[in-house]
Each structure stands twice: as structure tokens, then as C-alpha cells.
Amino acid sequence: MTTTTDAAASSTEVGVVPSFDVTLRIRRFNPESDTEPHWEDYTVSVHATDRLLDALHTIKWEQDGSLTFRRSCAHGVCGSDAMRINGKNRLACKTLLKDLNPKKPITVEPIKGLAVEKDLVVDMDPFFAAYREVMPFLMTSGNEPSRERIQSQEQRDRFDDTTKCILCAACTSSCPVFWGDGQYFGPAAIVNAHRFIFDSRDQAADQRLEILNDKEGVWRCRTTFNCTDACPRGIEVTKAIQEVKRALLTRKV
Fold it and tell me: What's this model's pTM, rounded to 2 decimal places?
């Protein structure tokens, strides 16, 4: 027979997730006081279900308020918390600590190829400049339609994958070509051009193709698949770039 006391004790144990300590080795840089970036270690108590973003919050709120990083929705939608985690581009809000071998220090640093403003925050202006240059919006001609523009499911499927981009820059900043040449449009800009080049309702495919035919456009891609591996949304980035190259050669979309 279970007593009231036994039942209460059992209920407190059900669903309890044990905690453990992890060390985050964070690449820090404060332009007001540092001449070069440096590494700092922080130890925090976490649970297996915690994400890296949770650990960063603990450090920011309880240990070192000067730690600087971007984050917004915390649910993998806004793309603002992209960073290099154990040498790979990931979203901090989607990365579970238990998947990072927490027995060893977890390295956290800013994404590469963009100037570091402070700690994990980089200057995104060049990234968004390339994005704007490919005209990432629907372009049509003629009078304003009196009804919706009809599109078949097959036509939608043609570009559906590239509509998933959240502009986190994980793909672009994982590209070796972009690291060495900041003028390269980068995978994210090409992905967003692809989204409209192959949209049956759009009428500016030729303009976008000419933009990407530039020496800093699609022909700089070396097909290393870093971008595809880095995409937190699972977009087949390298495939999209190859489809744009093929469209340039055949002038068929």
C-alpha cells in the first residue's frame, strides 16, 4: 500500500532532468579595449534538454553581462543567432548541448567572413547588400491584376525549397570562397535569386541571371557543399546554385 508521503516523494522524482556542468570556450572581442580576439571559459550548470542559447543566456544573465550576441525568436525562425559552434555554423537556439560532447569544452565563435563588431556579433551589412542586389521580390509587368495570380502545384514545387531561407548567413559564412573574397555574392543571395528566377509569376528572371553572371556571381562557387551542410533549414543550397548556373547556360527557367 502506497502512503501519501510515498506518493508525494515519487511525484517529485517523476520528470526530473538531471543537471550537469559544461564549459563554453567563447571567442571574445571588445573593440573598445581589445586589439585582438581572445578566448574565455565559462562553466555553467545545464540540463540535457538545454540548447546552447540557454547556456549563453545563463552566462549573460548570471556571470558576465558584457557578453554580446544576437538572438530574437529563439525558435529557429529569425536566424539571428547563427554562430560557429565546435567549428560548424549552427543556430544556437536549435543546438542541443547533449549533442555537442559536453564532456569537452564547447567552442563558440562568430561566423567567418564578416567583420566582428563585438564578441559573437558580426557586421551583416555586406551580407544584406548582396541579398538586395539580386532583387529578392516579385517583379511583374502590366496592369495590377484583378485576381490572384494562378500557379499550379508543380510550378510552386519548382522553387519551394529556396523559400525556406531565413537569412541567417550560416551558408554564406561557411563558404571558403566568401572567406577569401568578400565581394562574392554568396550562397544565400543566390538562393534568394533562385526563389524568384524559377517562380512562374515573376518576369525578371533574365535580369537576375545577368546579375549572377557577374565575375562575383555563381561562377565563383566551387561546389564544396559547405553551404548545404550549414543550412539549418535543410535547403539544398548547392543544388540551387547549380540550377542557376544551368539556367545561365541554357537560358531556360
Answer: 0.88
109 and 213 housed in the same domain: no
Report the C-alpha gap between 158 and 244 in whole angstroms.
Answer: 12
Q: Residues 134, 108: one domain?
A: no
List the grid coordinates of 120: 559573437
Classify residue 13: in a domain, yes or no.
no
Which residues, at least 6 apart from 183, have a Cβ–Cβ distance to it below 8 Å? 216
Pair 107, 193 in one domain: no
**Cα–Cα distance, 122 to 108 (Å, whole number):** 14
| Partners of 38 in the β-ladder | 28
Same domain, 118 and 129: no
Residue 116 CA: distances (Å) to CA of 28, 52, 99, 112, 124: 10, 20, 27, 9, 9
Q: How far apart are CA 121 and CA 4, in angstroms?
A: 53
Q: What is the pLDDT of residues 163-193, one digit of tens each?
A: 999 999 999 999 999 999 878 999 999 999 9
pLDDT tens, 89-142?
999 999 999 999 889 999 999 999 999 999 999 999 999 999 999 999 999 988
Is 135 found in the same domain as 91?
Answer: no
Domain total of the chain: 2
**Residue 236, domain extent:** 125-140+155-250
Phi (first) and psi of residue 107, to 5 degrees? -85, 135
88 and 27 fall within a common domain: yes
Q: What is the rounded CA–CA span in Å between residue 175 and residue 89?
A: 10
